[in-house]
């Protein structure tokens, strides 16, 4: 099988390639990525494998997308590429619409032009944020109405609608997965968990939005990648699957757990690390709670996560402690100016 993976130099895409390229030497994986600030080729551990290739392609460039699709003739497209950070979407929404909406449209058009498209598959990787916010009770199911709150989630919702519309209108074979919050190795340290790990390690403030009472539903990134592959193999054509592991946590409890593990791994005092917690002004439009009902993907595709939140978080802390070269390579000038911009306004 020829497989185009978009955004394979980002957090989830790189983990996906690291798992699947060695597992399936008979498949050819072509990673197309624009290499934005969020990308890092050092995250890809399989770059020297004969069944892996990288091409720098911006999915907002229709001609470049058409060209690579015509050459590779993918049997499967796994579409990760996106602008992914909610806070950045609040500062600069245009890029999110360009990449997440127009970029997805370009991919769908290039896919539609392939010969014998009915035997191929377009797998669209999306987020539970399209459903908006839950109150204290209930879960997101595949039939929950879309109600996005941020420019990021609105752009992902639009991309989901386009993928479904191309299935209904043109009969394209597609699947969509909407996943809860991922964490694990190679996550860009603008996101809550790696930011808190690195700040705790370096003794810097731990900026918790609001009172830290917002709830996220956490999934170890490799479990997400395994779920995607199960859906590729076993999912129904045209279907949507929500992916999660029933791991709801309040943000403040996540930050406490990080302080405890960092203390344990480095011989420091957990109480001193917890003293670094600083409550800062909230994110505008901050969704209160996300929680996935994963029964459909469990029952139809056999998904069962391997990591608990505790084991996955310890693996993640160890990754950031043991891979300082990777950390240094992503904390460039662009990273420092983002941190300054996002947090100076909050303090
Ligand atoms: P990320 O920000 O770490 O990586 C995104 C990748 O896409 C980067 O390599 C970047 O260079 C690439 N990219 C961005 N714009 C591009 C463009 N115009 N052309 C080509 N490549 C481009 O994101 P992530 O956290 O790995 O998320 C991957 C996908 O999974 C996204 O679609 C996101 O919406 C979805 N998702 C993420 C999470 C999560 O918790 N991180 C949860 C559910 C769904
Ligand atoms: O639910 C899936 C989504 O999860 C993905 O679609 C997004 O791509 C991904 O970024 C993530 O979105 P969140 O906004 O939930 O993740 P983030 O790590 O930015 O924030 C997690 C929670 O922590 C959220 O309630 C905001 C809070 N937070 C975040 C940061 C960066 C803080 O309290 N302080 C911070 O400094």
Mass-distribution shape: globular
Largest sheet, strands/sense/barrel: 7 strands, parallel
Structural class category: alpha/beta
- Round the mean pLDDT to the nearest integer and report it: 97
- The count of β-strands is 12
Radius of gyration, whole Å: 19 Å
List keywords for this structure.
globular; binds nicotinamide-adenine-dinucleotide; alpha/beta; binds 2'deoxy-thymidine-5'-diphospho-alpha-D-glucose; 13 helices; 347 residues; seven-stranded parallel β-sheet; 45% helix
Question: What would you note in describing this structure?
Answer:
It contains 13 helices and twelve strands. The longest helix has 20 residues, at 93-112. The strands form three sheets. The chain has a seven-stranded parallel beta sheet, with helices on both faces. The chain has a domain at 2-187 and 218-247 and 289-306: 3-Layer(aba) Sandwich (Rossmann fold), CATH 3.40.50. It has helices spanning 11-23, 62-72, 86-91, 93-112, 151-170, 192-201, 221-234, 251-266, 270-274, 295-301, 309-322, 324-330, 333-344; strands spanning 2-6, 28-33, 52-56, 76-79, 121-127, 174-179, 181-183, 206-209, 215-220, 240-243, 248-250, 277-280. With 347 residues, the chain is an alpha/beta fold. Helix 1 (11-23) packs across helix 7. The site of 2'deoxy-thymidine-5'-diphospho-alpha-D-glucose has 19 residues, from helix 6 and strand 8.
